[in-house]
Amino acid sequence: MNQWPFKMEGNPTCKFHSTYKLNHIRMKKLERIVASKLLKIKAVKLQPSNPFTWASGWKSPIYCDNRKTLSYPALRNFIKLELARLIRENYDQADAIAGVATGAIAQGAMVAEELGLPFVYVRSSPKDHGLENLIEGDLKPGMKVIVIEDLISTGGSSLKAVEAIRADGSEVIGMLAIFTYGFPVAEEAFKKAKVELTTLSNYEAVLETALATNYIHESELTALQEWRKSPTTWEPK
Hints:
Elements: H1 12-40, E1 44-46, E2 52-53, E3 59-60, E4 62-64, H2 73-90, E5 96-100, H3 105-115, E6 119-122, E7 135-136, E8 144-152, H4 156-167, E9 171-180, H5 184-193, E10 197-202, H6 203-212, H7 218-229
Helix pairs in contact: 1-6, 2-3
């Protein structure tokens, strides 16, 4: 008896596994392409021997500023089209796009324009004057919303935007971002909030690409990997 029915010709499970594998390969390729482009324009910088200091006080061998992508028309368009493609393929029921202020406002608006969907953006805190809006734009109760982010670190600010949209009566069906550090605390937070996250690239893809292109030396790889495991206590050696 065949113990692996998904290998049998015409078996629907086989088709599912084949599709999953193809999608996985395609995403891995995309992650490396985006990583290469981010490194090239220095939207992502790696400095394990001369680390950056984040606003949180963390010492970090990496700094990511995806707003720089907006200054490069070809890259800006590439990111827009890839985000829009992922939404068409996976969230064709989306009614609106929401960008998280401030980093994802421009990219979110471009994605909404590409898809012909309404756009709003979510502030980190309500305005202190006028209508004191937290969400800028017009969402109708019951709308299915895709949230666009530029960068995922701990996930705190991203998920606050999700909470605001849900509190306003709409449904968040997914979040897309350009880049994630892949911190375990963020993965757990998204899981707890029941938000599906898809990113164009990630920390692992950046390290693989940086090593392959001699941006970093293999001797620096350990420090970069150790930082991701414990960013709050990491110190350069």
